[in-house]
Amino acid sequence: MELTLPGGPACEHATEVASAYSAPSLLNHSMRVYAWAAALGGVHHVGFDPELLFVAAMLHDIGLAPEFDSHAKPFEVAGGHVAWVFAAGAGWPPERRARLAEVIVRHMAAEVDPAEDPEGFLLSRAAAADIAGRDVADLPPDLRREVLERYPRLDLVEEFLRCFGDQAARKPESSAAAAMRNDLATRMARNPLEEN
């Protein structure tokens, strides 16, 4: 399976935004999340909108950036708002903007119904694979090697735990806080992708 990224102005600009506001390890995480999501779409026979999924992957953690962090909202909700504004600037119609925000918010849900929200399902599963190793065995080994070579993990564990620890300390009812309480650090350390 070969990694193919969608093109077009929205995808290019989403990558530019993620590059400007994300640490290198989080930018690479976003790129890997799209790759894993596209692969899982094939594995689970879930059709998806490549542009919508790619933009969501690039912006799904934008709410962790200090420039967009909300003192009151969970990072995924703040990120959904930023993505809505981004999509408005890209000329997307209101319904598509709302879908983008919804996909980003749902990426932190424990379960997303693929029939109801294919992009949300794939983004959630792919982010969980990259962060905690969920469903990594579903990803073709050749693709894993290619993606990890092109977008290495760098200091993802340390950077992600720092961001989530900060979110948890300030927003104890957030999904980030719940993840920290559920031993995210151990799950990240045991992620098979860390061994590649």
From TrEMBL:
Domain HD/PDEase: 22-141
Entries under InterPro entries matching the protein: HD/PDEase_dom, HD_domain
Domain of life: Bacteria
Pfam families: HD
Protein name: HD/PDEase domain-containing protein
